[in-house]
Structure formats: C-alpha cells, structure tokens
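Changelog note: in this version the structure field was regenerated for every chain. One regenerated record is shown below for reference.
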Amino acid sequence: MLERKLNGSAERTILPEDRLGERARVYGSEKAILVALQRPGSSVDESLSELDSLASTAGIPTLLEVVQSRTSPDSRYFIGKGKVAEVKAAAHELNAEVVIFDDELSPAQARNLEEKLKTKVIDRSQLIMDIFAQRAATKEARLQVELAQLRYLLPRLRGWGSSLSRLGGGIGTRGPGETQLELDRKKINRRIHTLERRLKKARAERDLRSKKRRSGALPVIALIGYTNSGKSTLLNRLCEANVLVEDKLFATLTTTVRRGEIGSSQSGLFVDTVGFIRNLPHQLIPAFAATLETVREADLILHVVDASHNTQNAN
C-alpha cells in the first residue's frame, strides 16, 4: 500500500483512484465474492482455491465463489449479464463489499461491472499487487510494487463523478482547460519516471552485492519454488536462521542470504527467493528480477516442492 502522496507532501497517499471509489486496493475489513470463468475442457478449482488463499493473505474473508461456464469472456462484463445480476443479488444479500475476479479485467469491463454491481470490483492482478504492497519490506521491493500499481492504474483512470469534470485552469496549473483527470495522469507519469530512476539506482546496488557474492569462495545454493512451499522453513533449518515463516502466500518478498553448512566440512550461501505463482501480473515481473538473477548465478538450484499440493506437483 502506498504511504506517500504522489508529490511526497503527505503521510498517506490519496491516489486519483481513491477519489473514484477507492478501487486501487482492498482492505482487511472487506468481505468478498470470488468470480471465475470456466472454459470448455478446463477446471477452475485450483485457480479459485489459490484466489481464496490470496484473499485470505490480504485479510479478506470469502463469502461465496461464483463460477460461470462460457466458451469466451463477454466483451462488456467478462461474465454474462444474467450472471452479473446473480452476483449483484448475492452481494446485496451477503453484504459483500468487493467482488474479486480470477482473471484480469480490461478497464472497460471493470467500469461496466462496477456500474452494474454497485460495489467495488478488482481482479487477480490488483489483489496480488495489494499483497505485495502490504508485505514489501525492502526499499527496492516497495519501489517495484508502487511502480507496478501506478502502471496498472494509469489506463484505468476514468471520469467518475464531478471530481474529474472540474477544470484545472488558472495560476499554478499546466494550462487552462485541463481536467482533473488529465492532471492526475500527469502526476502519475511524473511519479513513474521518479520511481524508474530510483529503481535503476537500487538495481546497481543489488548488482554490486551480487558481484561480491560471486567473487567469494563459498558456493551459492538458490532455494526456488512455488510461494508458500516451505523455502523459508528449509532455510531456517539449514542455516539455523530466523527468517519469517508464515502459512501465507508471499510471506517472502525479497531474497535472503544466509550461511550454512554443507556436509561436515563445507559451508555455502543459501538464498531464499520470492515464490512463484500462476498468472503473475505482468507489472510485477520486475519484482522477481533478484530471484531470476540468483537462479542464473547459483552453483546449485534446489527446487522446493510441497508434496501435498497438486498444483506444485503438476508444475
């Protein structure tokens, strides 16, 4: 979650999206309905189960899961109009405050659904980004998440309500006749450029640390695998470390390096990495740069698999 205003002058961010219905993120007090589209010859059971786990990680209890079988998504509402009416009735009856879709929605689909459902609508990508925002601990991770959120938000700004119909002309504005929407876009673009510059510097610092590890005499062992598969638990056992362990998705969002023993006379550097997940938002792929670099440069890759989880066994 972003904690600064876009111009850096306030303690809590008021994103343009907030003024349009607080749709940029989810909150722990909300209750959700999950919606998935099942195409012919496929099953959504695993994906919906994962979406439920993601919602739980974000602190959002699930009230109901709704599945519609269709050959392809509806261009206007993603699901059919009849199913939209069904979800709306269920949301009213259960007092659900947010409807979470298992697939990424287009800006138009999200807008149309919110107008029909009269409640907040987010998709899997927004949910994952919100979890990253809640749990990012390092400077680089926070910058990456904020950049991902803003890039996702930019094409989804839309003229809801009077706040975007006001003109921004006059002293201190870019020019007469600019709408609030145009000003918001300029603010976000400026912030994006600032974040890109800061991330470039952070990557250079990470590359320097990585170079020092490669130049050392100790072998590097990378622990990789699905999120919540037990990588951090294994690291703690191997290195007598005290890395945070939680039964939640994305408990680890940064690479962690600890020294451990290999056999009776050899030491090594064990690297705990960010876990992978299906349908990762494209905007968050840079957040896995450190993990991918670690894997590429490691002397040994140790793939950690949860034997009780069918999804991980299949991948």
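Spot check on this record: Residues 1-24, 159-176 have pLDDT under 50 and may be disordered. The first strand starts at residue 32 and ends at 38.
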